[in-house]
Amino acid sequence: MLLETPFHRRTGALCHHRRWRNWSGYAAALSYEPSHEYEYYAVRSAAALFDISPLRKYEITGPDAAALVDRIVTRHAADCPEGRVLYSPWCDEAGKLIDDGTVQRLGADAFRITAADPSLRWFQDCALGMDARVRDVSLELAALALQGPTSRDILAGLVTGADIASVPYFGLAEGNVGSVPVTITRTGYTGDLGYEIWVRPEHALALWDALMEAGRGYGIAPAGLDALDVARIEAGLLLKEVDYVSAWTALIESRKSSPYEAGLGWAVQPRPGRDFVGGKALEGEAAQPSKWAFAGLEVDWPRIERRFASVGLPPLVAGRASREPVPIFAAGTQVGFVTSSTFSPILKKYIALATLQRDFARPGDRVDFELTVEFVRHEVPATVVKTPFFDPARKRN
Amino acid sequence: MSAYDAVVVGAGHNALVAAALLAREGWEVLVLERRGVVGGAAATEEVFPGCRVNLAAQDAGLFRREIVADLGLEARGLEWVHPPAVATSLTGGGDALTLWRNPGRTRDEIAHHGPADAARFPDWADYLRSMARVLRVALDHAPPVLQDASARGRLRLLRPLLRAGRVGKRTVVELLRVLPMSARDLLDDWFAGEALKGMLGTTGLLGARQGPSAMGGAFRMVYHATGTEACGFRSSVFVKGGVGVLSEALEAAARSHGAEVRTDAEVESILMEDGVATGVLLAGGEEIRASCVVSGVDPRRTFFGLVGAPRLGPEFNRKVTNIRLSGTTASLHLLLDGLPPLPDAAERLSGHTLVAPDLEYLERAGDDAKYGRCSARPHLDMVVPTLHDPTLAPEGRHLASIQIRYAPWRLRSGSWEDGAIRDALRSSALDVLEEFLPGLRARIVDHRLLTPVDFETELGLTGGDEYHGQMGLDQLLFMRPVPGWGRYRTPVERLFLCGSGTHPGGGVTGGAGRLAAREILRDRKLGARLGGRDQT
User: Fold this and answer.
1) Exposed (0-12), middle (13-18) or buried (19+): which is B266, by Cβ within 10 Å?
2) Does residue B363 sit in the same domain as residue B449?
3) By the CB < 8 Å criterion, does B311 face chain A?
4) Superfamily of structural domain A291-393
5) How many domains does chain B have?
6) Which residue in A122, A126, A128 is closest to B321 by CB distance?
7) Residues of A with Cβ-Cβ distance to B313 under 8 angstroms
8) Cα distance between residue B204 and residue B452, in whole Å
9) Region B191-200: what's the mean pLDDT?
């Protein structure tokens, strides 16, 4: 029996065919319509509304709050100004990824961290000997993501007490929707212009209704995880346990990934005198890079079509994002594997997130993608490209 | 440039052993002791006017004789006392069962209580000796690093096994069978007499919070039989002048090799740069630089008190948090105007005098501790040091130091600050003692009670745990002090541990200090640095 989020009375009524996925124990809609395509286009050309309440949320407060957050995450969080948000992974002592999420700085001594999986004990262990309090607020906060080019206009017309137009990329504002107090962060998992709205669960339905009402003229559509999965691959964003395996769940050492191996090297920010969990190990890895690297791949679509055509089939590539690992070869030798892949409707390309040996992961490198057609394995060419695959200017402007 | 090669935090007996052994290799060593005297829990002090009292540790029979020879301690005032009685169990109503140093006498004595047990006792003594001999091999080697897959590492892992194998493969297998057993199960295999089993079972309680039915009790029994003499029981060897004389001899040895020893010098924190220990900060604000820091302080106090949890990793901190540090013992020191009226008192009371009439008595005492209470009828272990050295007290006076078990550091209700709780503990101990040794109470001139909280505040023992961590099977060998850090090193480079919280463990053994010194000398990184220092 899956749990229901505070929005379930609305999402449940809309999700006619009951395609639910278990997201941290909650029922999360895969799509509201039989196919996710309309919902995907809402993300890219109008506004899509996602229920992201199953995220884990932690509040860190106290005189040492900034020092504690800075100790937990790999990014230099102590530098994060009030009213800003930053994305960061965090690692174990060996510098291997545990989880990733956003860090909201609510005040000088108050932060909120989102995580994919339960992290209270870890954060509290990190807090040992520090004057800071870690609280699990997962049940005290419901959340919606409003993503897409019209999201700013919808919110601007709805929110009082905050100037939505002036909230920068990864900015944070406190305001009201009607009489409901909300925290708004300009963040998301789609790589598009978008916001996440944090609210007390008792106000959840009022917020949903207000957004759906205000969004009516802006093409708003409730959207599910299938659309989100396509959008996040286009945005080059990682999914825990799919694109990397958490150090906590990896059964063997080689399954673990460091931020460098997962393409998050930019988020490792050592500073003189800064001591964060895993920092020492990562310093060693920076000096002596791992043989693995993260890469975006564009797979040659006409070749895929031709392979299928040769047996008389149209390309039977799932319309949805695939989480099936796929081997990658170079000159007949396996040099890595794809972790997520999808046909990008907006780019009209078949794209993939991959873990490759460093020597094959430079932009422009040519590799081969394994494609199985009618039970026969083939290789089709693919090119390493920079991520994000899709990066509209409106995301930041 | 560092002022010292090594600064040693604390002057407990293990710290002094480490300091002396490092100084002997030509290292410049400074020992810093918070208190005014050296020895830590192995100190002898004036508790009553004109009397020298062993504050906590009484028995030094586990002290490694190799260290005595290496450091020439016997030339520095150390003199052993081997009293005629190993231990005497008070069996009630003024009756007693004594294990004598002379095996024939022991056999005769046990025969009075049970002829079958008397016949088995010599075999038991041999058995315990052979078990102890194998265990000694493990205790005298630094524990293996299980994750070290190098050929060299594997060889080091094998060496103690090979040595133990030479002692006898069957003995090794038998030891592995026996170590996890409870004291009760092991003793039930051997004896019938309740008094004898109660007495022998007491060593299974040392360094544990549980009674004789708890797993691992057999390990503790063997551990306490690793002393030099095999008598079928624990060591019962004392130091003339008090156990503090051993610590003073160690201090003298350290000084003679060039080490400095400063008392009344409290280390407030360990200085670090980029995760490397660089020295210590004293409470007065003085900074002392050293190429390495060696802490004889218990692991939790070292890491959380002197280093600080935020400077260590959360996974490591979790392990340190989970170390079971829980004192269960209080000490009651008595000044007496004469020996208690027991036949042959001067002989019978010369070893450990125990109130442990049977295993069930011990179990019930342990039950109280399990629920956070002091034992209503505690197990007592009394030593009369004036029978080893009459000069410890004025003429005509005797001293008795009694370990009261159990007096848990963490009480379920009430606080050790509460005088009524201390009074209750003292009177329950004295009531029991009067019952088993009638006439003692009338001889008491003065008394002083040290609770686990007193041990914590006066001797710096976290949780009042004189073993620096319980001697449970999960806190031994490569798991002591925490898994992954069993070789005296720490996550802080150039910070080492050398106290009872490390392998082989608690008691006055000197083993931890000796093995730590050996590992520190072996530490190649440090060696390179010190090599550089010598050239300048």
Assistant:
1) middle
2) yes
3) yes
4) Aminomethyltransferase beta-barrel domains (2.40.30.110)
5) 3
6) A128
7) 93, 277
8) 20
9) 96
